[in-house]
Specification:
This protein has nine helices and six strands. By secondary structure, the chain is an alpha+beta fold. It has two domains: 71 residues, no CATH class; 106 residues. The radius of gyration is 19 Å and the shape is elongated. This is DUF559 domain-containing protein.
Amino acid sequence: MDPVSGTYGGHGIVSLTSALVQALPELPVANAVAVLDDCLHRGLQSPSGLEEIRRRLRSRRGSAGMEERVLSRVDPRAESPLETFARLQCADAGIPPDDLQVEIRAVNGAFLGRGDLGWRRDGGGWLIAEIDGREFHDRPDALHRDRQRQNAMVTWGAAQMLRFTSADIAAGTIPAAVRSTLTARSTTP
């Protein structure tokens, strides 16, 4: 049993690292990766903390294969669990994004926007997949900013944009949409 590292409401609690070592083997793979992505992205866990988790999982019953299935897929650049789920679905379908949080710039270097998942296009452009969660994209001001950013990126010809929501993730349709867009654009004169 891990030692108590503090109290909350009069009850003993363990460290985040200990809690993760206990919980991760019980989670579905995508959820486990998303939890670790989020902990690293928010600074709740450090790369050295991830190494500690890795070390402790090696000797934990029920955690065989965690290195390959979960830990090797962690990426702290993911800014939401939805982004993680979309990235993993695409990777599992054989089309992993080339980059995350892709900065799109005009020819003169002016910043136009940043996309969640990006695939490099022949000729230097990008296919960008935006994963829109309700928390940040449903407010009128956010919709206005998203539209301006998308219009700027597309107008300059620096990117082609696809937008997805949690419903697309649940339906598993993102990889097919990305693949068909990549294929259609590569065969278009």
